Fold:
Amino acid sequence: MAKHRRPYQSPFAPLLTDQRFAFATQLAQQAGIDPSQVLFAYLQLMATVATNGQTATVSQQREIDRRFQQFLDDAAE
Structure:
C-alpha cells in the first residue's frame, strides 16, 4: 500500500488570507504583543527567506514557520 502524504500546510497560512488581521490578533494576544508586530514579523521573514518575489518552496515555508514560531515564543517570554 502506498503512503499518501498531505502537502505541507503552514500553521500560519491564515496570515496570507483575508482573515489575516483576526489571526494576527489571536497570535498577538497569546504572545502579549501588538497585532501589527505579528504581521510585520511574518512579512519580514517571508521577504527574507523566500527570495526574488517567488512563492516559498516547502523547505523555505518550513523555515519561515520555524523562525516565526521562535519569534512568537521569544515575545511571550
Summary: The two ends are 46 Å apart (CA to CA). The mean pLDDT is 91. The helical segments are 20-31, 35-49, 58-76. Residues 58-76 form the longest helix (19 residues).
